Amino acid sequence: MVQAVERKKKEQEIVRKPSIYSMELDQLKSWLVENGEKPFRAEQIYKWLYEQRVAEFDEMSNLSKALREKLTESFSLTTLETIIQQTSKDGTIKFLFQLQDGYSIETVLMRHEYGNSICVTTQVGCRIGCTFCASTLGGLKRNLEAGEIVEQVVKVQKALDESGERVSHLVIMGIGEPFDNYDAMMSFLRTINHDKGLNIGARHITVSTSGIIPKIYKFADEKLQINFAVSLHAPNNEIRSKLMPINKAYKLPDLMDAIRYYVDKTGRRVTFEYGLFGSGVNDQVEHAEELADLIGDLKCHVNLIPVNYVPERDFVRTEKDQIFEFERTLKKRGINVTIRREQGSDIDAACGQLRAKERKEETR
User: What more does the record tell us (predicted)?
Assistant: First the structure.
């Protein structure tokens, strides 16, 4: 309680400057013109931010001192402070970052044969309330700025710079519901995909949602090449409502209509994230058959996820034999399916778990 009061006081005392990383290239050009500067300086600034990855505005040596002072007065270059960095034996790294107002978020680097992938966070906490997820403990505190999302990638890239590696893939599946912070998420995507930004290819980026239907239609109309995933986790309305309260507002049949609209509009397949929960919650053969009935007419892929144990939740992991039986059942029905490779099992692997352990006052 005392910590919560102290945090509130700190929030009131801090005058937060917006992150420079929130500025898309065209927005930065407009800002420069408004402040008596030449618009071509925007590309120079972008080069310092995304190629040189400087830590101070004063390091931008080809800019005038006056411009550097204007940037310093108007923007923050660093809005994230690394509090904890956990490294797994499989190379997975989980970062706990503290924001300017004292709240914390998680970002994860995962190493794959095809490259280095980052899982980014879009909100401090989450209001969706999925009953299996540590991210939603304590509810939603606030949305992240676009720049606070961008800086997660920059921070991890800086860590990779030491070994000459680069971020090649990106998933927006960390703490929070991306479509609940839609405008900031879209600004982040435009910057991170831009050839003057970090230049991560659209087909190497995946956005996931728990099923905010109006935003699915909006996202489909963007006609992006970005990959799209839906956290499904259940083959019917009853089970999904127990696991995911959002299903009471956006029911499964309506969600499937929105997903069909997306597939028809974009011509792209959708990935269904399906967490397997033991004790017969959603992991039996009959559940797999029902799931095949639900999605069998769609261009899709199913990603089966053996759930991580979260101390604050009661769910247990499905046995290996049952996982493989579930996979076989879907394959027999012609469904494209894989089992997610487990990573970071020796650290706080579950989404939101490190934050829940280290920042208990945020997640009560």
Answer: Reaction proceeds by a ping-pong mechanism involving intermediate methylation of a conserved cysteine residue.
